[in-house]
Amino acid sequence: MNRKIALAGLSAAGLLALTACGGSSDAADDPTAGGDLDATVAEAGSALDLSDVCPATVVMQQDWQPEAEHGAMYQLVGSDYAIDTDAKSVTGSLVVDGVDTGVDIEVRPGGPNVGFQSVPALMYLDDDITLGAVNTDTAISGYETQPTIAVASQMTVSPQILMWDPDTYPGATTIEEVVSQGAVVVTSGDVIPTLLAETTSFDLANSDTSYEGTPARFVSDTTITQQGFATAEPYIYENEIAEWGRPVAYQLLAEVGYNIYPEPLAVRADKLDELSDCLAKLVPIMQQSQIDYLADPGPTNELIVELVEAYDLSWTYSLGVAEFSAAAQVSEGIVTDDPASGVFGQFDSERMRAIVDTFVPLLEAQGLITVTDIDPAELYTNEFIDTSISMEN
């Protein structure tokens, strides 16, 4: 599989049987351990001193393999990092702009590494996880039994797209223009087709939910439109899939109603108070880390590619894709300041209400939730956001 299939329909992963995580290897004996730490120590009590308020190791759980969309987490991994090839994780000093915060950071990937369990499921399985990347639709799915509270947005707009062959649909620039011609929409779940049926002229009879993340179908049948990511597939299909080797056309699904916050950082709802002192310092660090990563993604991208190679799973990720992704996150407007406030990482209450209004009926229709009276304010908090942080500063 070249790229994750991250659809709201996969929120059901949280319903899968929980499995034990992999074992650890001794970093001291690990040939993939990093070098000495090149950082100064944070001044005691300063904004960058996490030693008295955060866990000794801040554990961050991602929802997929290492990739550039997760750059803010990997940006903080110090040069003394060690890669655990058994557990598929990386641990190092948590370093902010050359300053050692006094704690370690461990970043864990998701997807096949954890049996495709949802991030909330993992957070409730393992108390050590401090922050998890939880899509808003996934948070809605877990609201009843695995509630999480988002504390900072990292990507403002979902990078998910529908893509099509520009030669088959010449001049088409929108999903509407393609589906109105009877194109089959190929996805891995029901949520996107159902949403398209409500927001465009798409006929659900033209839905095909058999997508498994491979390019074979798209390459062989140029009449379909297929899910993907603006931060990956346009580059991969043109540069890394020899059978295609040319541009694809696409539109962001966010422009036709897929309005979730993608992969915001969240804590377990029952741990918010316990972690509040830590979050007061850590959330601003995460806000700035995303901005810093996109300003100079090269070193972190090299770490991301190194991790993918070290984990040695049935998935590849090139430096070219990582570089393309970092650029696309900015050029496509995927990572932006919150339009309502101008603050990076802040959540918009009206948008959160719209997300709940959109996805509760969709998830209920799929049988993924039974509780439908969800207060959007219980899914997030702006309490720890530093309102002075902006991409424009």
Walk me through the structure:
With 393 residues, the chain is of the alpha/beta class. The protein folds into 2 domains: 269 residues, D-Maltodextrin-Binding Protein, domain 2 (3-Layer(aba) Sandwich); 97 residues, D-Maltodextrin-Binding Protein, domain 2, CATH 3.40.190. Helices cover 27% and strands 15% of the residues. The chain has 11 helices and 13 strands. The strands form 2 sheets. Strands 1, 2, 3, 4, 5, 6, 7 and 13 form an 8-stranded mixed beta sheet that branches. A 5-stranded mixed beta sheet has the order 10-9-11-8-12. A hairpin with a 2-residue loop joins strand 4 and strand 5. The longest helix is centred in the last third of the chain and has 20 residues. The N terminus is likely disordered.
Please describe the structure with a list of short key phrases separated by commas or semicolons:
393 residues; D-Maltodextrin-Binding Protein, domain 2; 2 domains; eight-stranded mixed β-sheet; 11 helices
Structural topology:
Layout: E1 40-41, E2 57-61, H1 71-74, E3 82-84, E4 89-96, E5 99-108, H2 119-125, E6 129-133, H3 136-141, E7 148-152, E8 160-164, H4 175-179, E9 185-186, H5 191-199, E10 207-208, H6 216-220, E11 225-229, H7 233-239, E12 249-252, E13 265-268, H8 276-295, H9 298-311, H10 319-331, H11 349-365
Parallel strand pairs: 1-5, 2-5, 2-6, 9-10, 9-11
Antiparallel strand pairs: 3-4, 4-5, 6-13, 7-13, 8-11, 8-12
Order of helices and strands: EEHEEEHEHEEHEHEHEHEEHHHH
CATH class type of the largest domain: Alpha Beta
Number of domains: 2
Total strands: the figure is 13
Structural class: alpha/beta
Rounded to the nearest angstrom, the distance between the terminal CA atoms is 39 Å
**Portion in helices:** 25-40%
Low-confidence stretches: 1-31
CATH architecture classification of the largest domain: 3-Layer(aba) Sandwich
Shape: globular
What kind of sheet is the major sheet? 8 strands, mixed
User: Please, what is the average pLDDT?
Assistant: 91
C-alpha-based Rg, rounded:
20 Å
CATH homologous superfamily descriptor of the largest domain: Periplasmic binding protein-like II
CATH topology of the largest domain, by name, is D-Maltodextrin-Binding Protein, domain 2
* Annotation field: number of helices: 11
Q: What percent of residues are in strands?
A: 15-25%
